[in-house]
Amino acid sequence: AYRYFARKEDIVMALYCDTIDALVSYIDTLPDGQIADRFDLVLKKTIQDFTPYRYALMALFGVAMHPESDVSLMGTDNNPISKQLSDGYHMLVTGSDDTLRSPKAEQMGVTLYTFHMLLLLFWLYDRSENQASTQKLINFVHELFKMLRPMFFLPMIPQAIAKLSAIVMPNLQHLEEGDN
Fold it and tell me: Tens digits of per-residue pLDDT, 80-97?
């Protein structure tokens, strides 16, 4: 393995990237439906696909959280895996029955990406039996997005989503400024 990878983190990162590639391909094959329902399917698929590698991912995320680490898993301008996953979620939004117009669709993609990463962190730490708390969180997020969808027409919700997008993916700052 060390012939192809310089360190353990690179091996797990390759596994993580392959799983994200497969997840984005899965998003492309989702059935028609609303954003909340399609996102729910993707979150459940994420946990299913990552479960065999949970301990390796714990180590990878631990390394990535160290302030001086060169391993990056979250949204930065130069992180292709973050951009790929965010773009995948943008595709989920634009392919939904209740799609949003640009730039709101792109911002919602970043919001879904953010919830994805938060859910992964929660799942990695979840010590409940069979990670039952993670399943409850997935169900809660599903209900939350279903409840919030009608509110997207009120100015405060898109503005909050735009701000979150600018925090998580700074390269989308122009979208926030154009929306206000």
Answer: 888 889 899 999 999 999
31-90 pLDDT, tens digit each:
999 999 999 999 999 999 999 999 999 999 999 888 888 888 875 556 788 888 989 999
3 DSSP 8-state letter: T
Q: Which two tokens stand for residue 143?
A: 């209900």
**What pLDDT is attached to residue 75?**
59
Q: How far is CA 128 from CA 39, 59, 61, 124, in A?
A: 23, 19, 19, 11
For residue 161, CA distances in Å to 101, 105, 143, 170 come to: 13, 10, 17, 13
What pLDDT is stored for residue 64 in this prediction? Answer: 87
- End-to-end C-alpha distance for the chain, whole angstroms: 51
Cβ neighbours of 128 (radius 10 Å): 10
Query: Mind giving me the DSSP string for 67-135?
Result: TT-S---S--TT-HHHHHHHHHHHHHHHTSTT---TTHHHHHHHHHHHHHHHHHHHHHH--SGGGHHHH
Does residue 175 sit in helix, strand or coil?
Answer: helix
Read off the pTM.
Answer: 0.85
- Contact by Cβ (8 Å): 103, 46: no
